[in-house]
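Workshop exercise sheet. Pairs work together: one partner reads the sequence aloud, the other fills in the structure field after running the prediction. Swap roles for the next sheet.
Pair: D.N. / O.F.
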Amino acid sequence: MTPREQFDRDGYLVARGMFTADEMAEFIREVQKGEPLTRGADFLDSGSMHFYHNVFYKNPVIQRFVCQQRVIDFLVPVIGPDFWMRWDQAVEKGPHSGVFAWHQDNGYSKLHEQYYQLWIALSEMTETNGGLWLVPGSHKSPIRHIKVDNHLAAEGDVVLFSSFMLHKTYENTTERPRWAYVGEILPTRCYDPLAPKPYFVMAQGGRAYGKFMPSIPGSRDIAQRIRLLPLTARNYYRKGKKRLKTVFKQSA
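Structure field:
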């Protein structure tokens, strides 16, 4: 069975031990000292569980890390030779942080197309510190909470799963934080009106690229742009509403 066939069947692939514990510790330090694209607390933050999103935009170290050829070689058989990163986040589940409930990531992005979640265990994942749970096949069939895979992971393990995959993390009942990183990836033929420009192209022709581009084939596709106009309009409305709140707060 090819990687693509396995992904189509199960909705995910696993690569054990792609990175060392030292590499993961350095990655966490980059996240902690980095500057996200937007400031302030994330709306998903809860207690000691913290989200750091769009950390790659201003951090060349993270950009180079996710574009290593070993990462590209893992992704190409499933995604194809040309792809870009629409968004990323690092998640710190602090001691005694709670459950992040079952969800599909398209419910947050509002995209109707499948995209790909590059999930990296930055620290050890266990049954007690909030490891990742997936429902195999839930990306393509009615959701049945019967067969569930729990991925216990060492630092450096990597999971690629569908944005339609039903997944969750349980509470961290330990005294140590649990870290993970997720990059959301689309083929360059696909457009996302919610992603900020320029577009970070990870791979071209199956080789690591790692450059920001003013446009991609998907963003130049008029049919896609027309089809996604409702999502674009909703995004402009949300941004306008946020700006008005800021103006009123400053003038108050």
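Discussion prompt: The helical segments are 3-10, 21-33, 60-66, 69-79, 106-109, 222-227, 229-251. What would you look at next?
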